[in-house]
Known about the structure:
Radius of gyration of chain A: 26 Å
Shape of chain B: elongated
Number of domains of chain B: 2
Largest interface: A-B, 46 and 37 residues
Number of helices of chain B: 3
Strand order of the largest sheet of chain A: 1-4
Number of strands of chain B: 0
Strand content of chain A: under 5%
Number of domains of chain A: 2
Number of strands of chain A: 4
Structural class of chain A: mainly alpha
Distance between the termini of chain A: 86 Å
Radius of gyration of chain B: 21 Å
Oligomer: heterodimer
Shape of chain A: globular
Helix content of chain B: 55-70%
Order of helices and strands of chain B: HHH
Helix content of chain A: 55-70%
Amino acid sequence: MELQKFTYDNRLSSLFLKATILWGLVGMLVGLTIAIELIWPTMTNGISWLSFGRLRPLHTNAVIFAFVGNGIFTAIYYSTPRLLKTPMYSELLGRIHFWGWQLIIVAAAITLPLGITVSKEYAELEWPIDVAIAIVWVIFGINLIMTTVKRRVKHIYVAIWFYIATFVTVAVLHIVNSINLPVSFFKSYPVYAGVQDALVQWWYGHNAVAFFLTTPYLGLMYYFIPKAANRPIYSYKLSIIHFWALIFIYIWAGPHHLLYSALPDWTQALGVVFSIMLIAPSWGGMINGLLTLRGAWDKVREDPVLKMFVVGVTAYGMATFEGPMLSLKSVNAISHFTDWTIAHVHIGALGWNGMLTFGMIYWLLPRLYKTKLFSVKLANAHFWLATTGMLFFAIPLYFAGFTQSLMWKEFTEEGFLKYPNFIETVTQILPMYWIRVLGGTLYITGVILMIYNAAKTIKQGSFIPEEQDEAPALEIRKPNPDKGHRRLEGKPVLFTVLALVAILIGGLVEFIPMFMIKSNVPTIVSVQPYTPLELEGRDIYIREGCYTCHSQMIRPFRSEVERYGDYTKAGETVYDRPFQFGSKRTGPDLAREGVKTSRNYKPDAWHYNHFMSPQKMVAESIMPPYPWIIQNDLNTSTTTGKIRAMMKLGVPYPDGFDTKALEHLQKQANQIAQGLRDGGIDVEDQKEVIALIAYIQRLGTDIHRESNEPIFSEN
Amino acid sequence: MSAIIVLILLGILVAGGFLIAFVWAVRNGQFDDDYSPSVRMLFENKKPKEEETIEAENPDPKQ
């Protein structure tokens, strides 16, 4: 058979590798900044674009899509051609992919601090960027699939399957979760509302973890661990089994993010069951990775690359055991809304994704630059800094999580909340937040060592832009004599379709019924749409990322009902686009903040002063001040458009209300501002704070309204 | 209400079909060669010839 000569292009993997390092540093520094802001809330006093609520989405997006994202592409553009014995399908598509992805990251880095956000976690980017992501992602997918089609080896190695599953699933997730109705270039509303929006979002959010942070990195593991150890994977059979099991089970587990919420119980139960089942395939992957090193532990002792891989895969095992445990309702009752979740995700992010990325970088650099690593000692130092950094980050947060949650739930013998002041439970865990900052600093110090080491390695080496290889052409035999899985492996397109079907099933059964059955979201007569001013206030709440620290979801526990008021009903959220359940209570829940009979009730003037300086109202508060909300005028240029968009989405405003919206807004703003002025506060009607106060005071009040009269009378 | 039944049935149908396809694949010997791919990926491009003879000279990595 004739041997064909071809080349592997190293330029793209090298570009992606450098982008991984750069964005990794940026994302982690933003993370460190917001960690410090939590113990020093006035650090960036008055600078809106540096406030916690705006930077937290930047941190999560940067580490997930910029750091890990570029890491994924580094691995794929390096390993895919070598595994399939062919260059990538199109160098042009590869370049468009690289620059397009970096452009999206830059757009995210600009828009998120400006408060341009949808507020759905890890999907915060507004619709024009979402469209760009979809296009670039499909370009990447075409390049990947077509490379598979043009391969010169019959067998598709397990890593490639993980890459393909990643492409297909992320495409579906991203598209379904991002279906929004644009109001302007910078603002849109989801087509899903309330509980349904929450379900779609966490179906996305959970699978972003599954198919962006997990499956591509398993592919990475299946390529780079055998390569670095120079040993075949422990069990190829296991890799096949756990691949199928993993992609089939993962897609159903999303509702475990909404346990004890207003989501229908059967959906919650479904999420729990599949989350528990996930242990098996996840640990299949971990065991396969670790046992690959059996008999090679002497190499692990010497080689920083293998050390990082071992800790990375171990962290994967820990996180994927912990995940199902956190999905048990009894555990979730304690862990949810606390720092336990933050600790959990950082075992995954710092351990699994971080360590695997660093190991890959140290392995790739000498090969791409035809030299030796500048300093193995520095790489070892990086390994220890990263490992201890991860532990100093996670362990204090576990303590913070247990402590705070138990304090929230503690009752006195007389049956009163032992810590009725939320702030008591915050000051208790602040020392843990300090240690977290130390852990993060250690971790970042390691990354800085890596950057120095990488720069020196690049300088001493010479880049190999292309590598030669040769292989016989893939013989097309008809009929296909291979049977079973081998035959399936020979048909990448068929494989893609099958993977698509597998993941679509999960989506279909889980959330289409939510749209179909009205009874899933019980309607409550007294629950009515937001007024235009409240809607504008709500959009400020979203812009400032209030949901990053305040939940709006009171769970049906005595401790929560006692502290915050009646538990949240699904029917109360039907006008919430997007939903604002939140996932973390750094501050108290706000679902019933406006209820006048509640013991938490605060008058308008309190809120005004609190936005100006939270520390003036609650001395030990860790909430940042929001002077710009006090100073800025409310932008009402899109109010009419917003109301019109809501009407299009089925919100029952009276006919023609969009044209009267501004008038209604001004009337309500005047009322609130007049109240504040009567109390001696010098404030004008058109300030943003008025709208925000209007929204806060509306929260949770609808089910307490005495009459069911529509609040929008026609006159 | 009928929609949910239709959808769940449809879901079970597709899931079942997927399962059958998988079982069929297993029974038809998908594990015929569940070893050599893991070894083949270890060979670098410098020795492309080895790939053709790998099955014959399969070095036992367990040693």
